[in-house]
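Good morning C.,

I know you're traveling, so I'll keep this short. The sequence:
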Amino acid sequence: MDYYSNQISKLIDELSRLPGIGAKSASRLAFHLIHMPKEEVKRLADTMVEARENVRYCNECCTLTDQELCPICSNLNRDHKTIMVVENTRDLAAYEKTGKYNGVYHVLHGAISPMLGIGPGDIKLKELIRRLEGDVEEVIIATNSSLEGETTAMYISKLIKPTGVKVSRIASGVPVGGDLEYIDEVTLLRALEGRTQL
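The tokens, ready to paste straight into the viewer:
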């Protein structure tokens, strides 16, 4: 039995298609939108359409931007000889929030996953290799420590090593505030192997 009118049900259905939005959240969002002033709803809708039409890949690092070059790639104060490879734009944002990395990035938009049918040709690897023809000294691989992220990191490492460019991998190990008894063995082993001198 339908509880809502056709328009409300349709709005809830569309909102529930968004990642991380279940039926209850979609319902709350739908009723919030319905009660918003029409001008605000129109502004929100226009902003979504404009973003979809105008956001594209940066010509250099492949992150999402509305310019030819993203703000990071166009910043001459950044170290353009060091490239950090990340899986997606959200990972780039996470590193930027630290305020400690001054190099540039390369966004793959995915990771190699034979199980899901995603191969090297399905992510932005050709663009990365093209960038290495320039003046690059180091590539830092910062993919996730999942099976797909590790597979991607190994593949990139094998691709880059013959070029003579230094390849490194971000450290992984025990999270800050983590209790050792709850950490898996692989993470503990990596933490031990990646230990640093104090």
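Safe travels,
E.
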